[in-house]
Amino acid sequence: MRTYRIAVIPGDGIGNEVLPEGQKVLEASAGGRFRLDWQQFDWSCERFAKTGAMMPKDGLDQIRDFDAIYLGAVGFPGVPDHVSLWGLLIPIRRNFHQYINLRPVKLLKGVDSPLKSPGDIDFYVVRENNEGEYSNIGGRLYEGSEAELCMQQSIFSRRGCDRVMKYAFELAKTRKKHVTSATKSNGISHTMPYWDERFAAMTKQYPDVKADVYHIDILTAHFVRNPHWFDVVVGSNLFGDILSDLGPAVVGSIGIAPGANINPEKEYPSMFEPVHGSAPDIAGKGIANPIGQIWSGAMMLRHLGEEEAAQTIERAIETVLADGKSLTRDLGGKANTKELGDALASIVRETT
Ligand code: NAI
Ligand code: MG
């Protein structure tokens, strides 16, 4: 039987509560056709408080040979967010060349969109995940004086632009054949015109895919006013980050939104995690919505080649949302984390 070795990093706060529900539902979806071999790592802000590091020095080596990484959430009050992010998530994303951050944005029946008439929303945000505005090249000069100044460089490489754009076009080919690029080449006069240039070059290789370009400011407005326009939206690290939070926000609860950090060549493990963070305000209460974690698990199974199991889980999510009886408070229900996880696991078991 095929066995997948999965590195499990629950992380902080509600990560510890939703991750076991994800494991439970994924186990149910295996149905004797494949095996999941989980190994847990306690890398977190709690570990930082005890040892001064989010993960051990050889942390990346410890998980390099796994088939995938299943992550909860990272970050907690007491440890500055840039410390926890750069101490764990970013090293994994960069060293394992997970240059695609993929987030589906789909309005499901049973979930209220904050929009008055949302229409049919079903698109993907493809965010560049390795370079762009999130570089640590920069620094301060004349610290503490009147002349104090600070600089940070953006990095846009040809390889970096081309590979994320290619991924977006390939994805669009399997869908509605439409790619939208986020830019800001009016204000940012070097990197963004370069991004546009690489996008124009890529469109030529995909004559059957419709391509359009919007500046990020008006694009955020269209996400709210015309979300039904989109199929695949590609953006730099910063713009993609913003769009991939705004997208899930217009289709309802942050608690259900999934995400993936993908190394498409499969040279390294890819990492699957919900969009939400550790939610310190509700952590420890057992009321967090586990759907984002579970849906991220479905994306992981798809990446591993278990398409059928992935679809079974996604259908179960649609069923449980439409039925409305086992939902958590963020979706207006009364169930707790475990009850919603159990409901999903039993639907998956029945339909596998
Ligand atoms: P957050 O996503 O943790 O929480 C935002 C709001 O949404 C809170 O009111 C929270 O209760 C609610 N919420 C989030 N997930 C939910 C769920 N599954 N069910 C029900 N309600 C849910 O974002 P916030 O507060 O900005 O960040 C908290 C910590 O998490 C910070 O340390 C931040 O750095 C970290 N974070 C980590 C991320 C990651 O691991 N990729 C992503 C976002 C934030
Ligand atoms: Mg974000």
UniProtKB/TrEMBL annotation:
According to UniProt, this protein's pathway is:
Carbohydrate acid metabolism; tartrate degradation; D-glycerate from L-tartrate: step 1/1; Carbohydrate acid metabolism; tartrate degradation; 2-hydroxy-3-oxosuccinate from meso-tartrate: step 1/1; Carbohydrate acid metabolism; tartrate degradation; 2-hydroxy-3-oxosuccinate from L-tartrate: step 1/1
Keywords, comma-separated and alphabetical: Manganese, Metal-binding, NAD, Oxidoreductase
Tell me the ranges covered by the Isopropylmalate dehydrogenase-like domain, including all copies: 5-344
Catalytic activity from the UniProt record: (2R,3R)-tartrate + NAD(+) = 2-hydroxy-3-oxosuccinate + NADH + H(+); tartrate + NAD(+) = 2-hydroxy-3-oxosuccinate + NADH + H(+); (2R,3R)-tartrate + H(+) = (R)-glycerate + CO2; (2R,3S)-tartrate + NAD(+) = 2-hydroxy-3-oxosuccinate + NADH + H(+)
Q: Report which superkingdom the organism of origin falls in.
A: Bacteria
Function statement: Has multiple catalytic activities. Apart from catalyzing the oxidation of (+)-tartrate to oxaloglycolate, also converts meso-tartrate to D-glycerate and catalyzes the oxidative decarboxylation of D-malate to pyruvate.
Quote the protein name from its UniProt record: D-malate dehydrogenase [decarboxylating]
- Originating species: Terrihabitans soli
